[in-house]
Specification:
alpha/beta; 8 strands; 36% helix; globular
């Protein structure tokens, strides 16, 4: 794994990269590299064995500079178009999870010609009547002053999941992890803090523009982004397939890395 801080239009962007081969761009979510951890998780390591795996940190996350001009998802999309220019990426495979999945979908509807294959994992971004995305901002407030059980329950299949406890421990965790969690919430509040949360009404009417084969991966017990969002993505994106991972919650790539990676590699290599 190599780490670099690249210049993008005068802003610093933190970038992790591993592997060789066709470029695979990864946009992170809440329980993830850049938003909690500094290095690859098992999921990322497996994918980096098969591709040139590139993971930038969102604006204001990890070591990336905060961009105070960002107020909407559109601003984030233009930021990533500038990142692609800096990396000289013209066509690539794209994976996004959680908020990163939302950004990936927004990129794909605007520039379908850039994306060879698209994978959305627990992606936010849609407004589905009667199935609102959860209030992660409320859950991020510790209960009884120190318990993050409700946040773990929202982002994982169980509050006592070992990965959940390691990433979102009760009380104070590792300082660097705490800072990254705060940074991710801060960025998310810029683009998603307006009930209903993490949505763009216009996105669902643009999904027909996605030209790449698309895989929708969802945890069976996702309590943050309901399964009906996966079904909506799969119904409105041409040439999309939906895969449900049993026993996993929202952070399916963390809870079930082997199963999730197997699905993705089969799809990318098909």
């Amino acid at each position: 794994m190599s780490r670099a801080v690249i210049d993008v239009c005068g802003r610093q962007v933190d970038l992790l990269e591993s592997g060789e081969g066709a470029p695979l761009l990864y946009l992170h979510g809440f329980a993830d590299v850049h938003s909690v951890k500094e290095i690859w998780l098992p999921f990322h390591e497996k994918l980096a064995q098969r591709a040139r795996f590139i993971a930038p940190a969102h604006p204001g996350c990890a070591r990336s500079d905060e961009n105070k001009d960002i107020d909407t998802i559109e601003d984030v999309v233009f930021h990533y178009l500038e990142v692609l220019d800096a990396l000289k990426l013209t066509t690539f495979d794209l994976i996004g999870t959680c908020v990163g999945g939302w950004i990936a979908a927004e990129l794909a509807v605007r520039h379908p010609e850039k994306i060879r294959k698209l994978v959305l994992i627990g992606a936010a971004g849609l407004f589905v009547p009667g199935a609102l995305i959860g209030d992660v901002f409320m859950m991020a407030q510790p209960e009884f002053g120190s318990s993050y059980a409700s946040l773990r329950e929202m982002l994982f299949s169980r509050a006592d999941d070992a990965n959940a406890l390691e990433m979102f421990p009760d009380g104070k965790g590792e300082l660097e992890d705490e800072v990254r969690r705060y940074q991710m919430l801060r960025l998310s509040s810029r683009i998603g803090f307006k009930p209903p949360y993490f949505y763009n009404y216009a996105l669902r009417n643009r999904l027909h523009r996605i030209a790449s084969p698309t895989q929708i991966i969802w945890g069976e017990n996702d309590k943050f982004v309901p399964r009906s969002h996966a079904e909506t993505y799969a119904a409105l994106i041409p040439n999309a397939q939906m895969k449900i991972v049993p026993g996993a919650g929202h952070s399916v790539h963390v809870e079930k890395p082997a199963e999730t990676t197997k699905l993705i590699l089969e799809f990318l290599n098909d």
